[in-house]
Specification:
Layout: H1 20-41, H2 58-68, H3 78-93, E1 97-106, E2 118-130, E3 138-144, H4 158-172, E4 180-186, H5 189-192, H6 194-202, E5 211-217, E6 221-229, H7 234-243, H8 251-259, H9 265-270, E7 275-283, H10 300-319, E8 331-336, E9 339-344, H11 348-368, H12 374-405, H13 419-444, H14 446-467, H15 473-491, H16 498-525, H17 530-543, H18 545-550, H19 561-591, E10 600-602, E11 605-609, E12 614-619, H20 626-629, E13 635-637, E14 649-655, E15 664-673, E16 676-684, E17 691-697, E18 702-708, E19 711-713, E20 722-729, E21 736-743, E22 750-758, E23 773-775, E24 783-791
Parallel strand pairs: 2-20, 3-4, 3-5, 5-7, 10-23, 11-24
Antiparallel strand pairs: 1-2, 2-4, 6-7, 8-9, 11-12, 12-14, 13-14, 15-16, 16-21, 17-20, 17-22, 18-19, 18-21, 22-24
Length: about 800
Amino acid sequence: MGVPPSRPADRALARPRRRPLAALAALVALLAVGAGVLVDLATPAPRPADAPAGQFSAERAYQNVRVIATRPHVAGSAANDEVREHLVGVLRGLGLETEVQDAVAPEAGQLSGAAGGATVARVRNVVARLPGTASTGRVFLVAHYDSVQSGPGGNDDAAGTSTILEVARALTTGPRPRNDVVFVLTDAEEACLCGAAGFAADHPLARDGGVVLNLEARGATGPVIMFETSRNNAKLVDVFGRAAPHPVGTSFAVEIYRALPNDTDFTAFLDHDFVGLNSAYIDGGAIYHTPLDTPAAMDRGSLQMHGDNALGLAREFGRTDLRQLRSGHDATYFPVPGGLVRYPGWLTLPLALAALVAVGALGWLLRRRGRASAGRLAAGVGLTLVPIVVAPLGAWLLWTAITTVRPGYAELLDPYRPVWYRLAVVALAAAVLFTWYALARRRVGPAALTFGGLAWLALFGVLLAVLVPGGAYLTTLPALAGALAGLAALATRLEGPWPVVAVTLAGAVAVVVLLPPVVLLFPALGMAMGGVAALVAVLLGLAVLPVVDLLHPQAGGQRGLVALRARRLGALPAGAAALAAVVLAGVGLAVDRFDAAHPVPTHLMYALDAGTGAARWLSHEDAPQPWTDGYVGGRTDVSADFPGLGDGELRAGPAPAADVPAPKLETLADTRSGDQRVLRLRVVPQRTVRLLTLHVETATATVRSATVAGRDVPVKARDGRWGFGVVFHAPPPEGVEVTLTLTPRADRVNLRVMDASDGLTGLPGFRPRPADVGVVGSHSSEMFAVARTYPL
């Protein structure tokens, strides 16, 4: 049985028919608030090279970006050596105590090396210190100076490295800080976070911990977001809120990042009980880890924002008593125009419950005042699920349709020019919301729909408070503000200007709280997960329903043509939004085409078994592009032949064998005692390579302990033919010494060694990419691997 049509008495929280000017004023006010939010998220203008010495200048920093990102410079390469020499020269030129930490370091954090075992690297970190006058601890500014093999790293992380150089220059022009400031430019971050792990674990300056400010980039533009903190961050966040000139960051982002398997150098410091903040700009992700990540691609406004925040925080932490930074709880925080709102995390659940109670009180009062029956209120709650479910689903279907037309998007984090697609998703969410509201409003009335929206916001707030406390504010605060506004409006019996003022203020709270996540979630998650941003956009729409209803045409108790015209007029926003979604998606497809400046990404590797002479082309692409399709065919599991390339199936195709030697395995010692066999080996590359791997065949022996380059490593076996393995990044030309303790004592042990370099040019059968075909951002793109089995 259907819900009966709404009665004339079942009105919204104000009387729109009588307040057209108030309705317009409310809309203008919300648009102004939204504009303020967007302006606050914009990057600042870059300062020129002749800016005052004590200020951060993006133009001065950019000169270092151009030197650092001249070409790809992976850990261990000659190009990386040149970058390191430049960094040391700049820091010593500032009069800072500067050294190079040369060490063998293990991987950090949650990373699992391609070996399925232990990952190690030779790292050379650049470390400089500005001594404090009466130090209470140390402040560490951290960025990595190595790049991926497939790009020069103009943003990732020449941005962070050049920011630190410019901050160091600015700090040396003024009075010395109270606390020591240490500048740590790490090596081998892209490979395994090994540089940061080696510094945090072994360097004397890291022995007592301290505050870490890690600077990253995962794109080319956008605001710098403080997206990760150490735990119990309340005091750290308070410093960030008052000292960073552009404090963009949310506790929701911190909660989400903690749950993800992603890592940066910051992870290595957290593993050793440091505290601190991790920041990056993340928009423009299409160039991430690709040849297009050049200095010219950098938004210098983002670089300026990085520097302003880093310098402000370095100065504030430089004068703060660092012994007082630990607190017993996390803070809830989010950006607002002009600053950062923050409150103790222990308030999260009480506020969520208060919002739920306030919404319940609103429902009770709506029923008591005759604005809506209990049945209509229940129907409003049920019907509100429709846009909450349909909008994200629609965004997913839209992107599925777009990637069907443009399959190259599947290998990109985001399109090259994503704005049109993002606007299309927002327009689609608006179309869903307006259509639902126009239809459901006639059935249950605006009061019931307003209650339903606030009820779901409050329920989500309680759920988030329990599961993801840092994100509860997203729905708790709009629900609480909306419920209080409704109660205030009903208390005035909907007379005078106060109901309009109340619902407008509540709408403004929703815009301030929910608009930044809509904007920031797109680059953070990519268009493939645009449905998350669509969901937040719908929640924002639900929170401002009372203001929307001020603009809704009212048929009142009228019948016939007048009511029909009112309903048609009410459907206009839905139709306009739906049309906008289609047009915007079409414009995106027309504008964002692949060309020489925006090439379609492809992935290709070459793997040679030097023992059998068999070679293969390999690709990670799920649906190979036409260029890749000329090399590979069906899927195959290559882990049995090339365990150093990881587990899982790859696209594969036959390739001509190159005349390239495999790495040599030298036996330095072979001793047997009881049921154990100890092998001391040296793996020696026969060419310039980025990494070496060694694996032990599962059927022949079990590894009980292992030492790599004199360092004990954890023994982590994996399933399959090849069990324990080790990857060594940036190996020296003389090779890497490995000691294995094996059981049972076996007369024959099979060892699989592999090395890998970068670049496919010159290999037999390789055809250079056309101008509009590019390289996907992957640590294995363009890899040339050679493997061989040695029985011992």
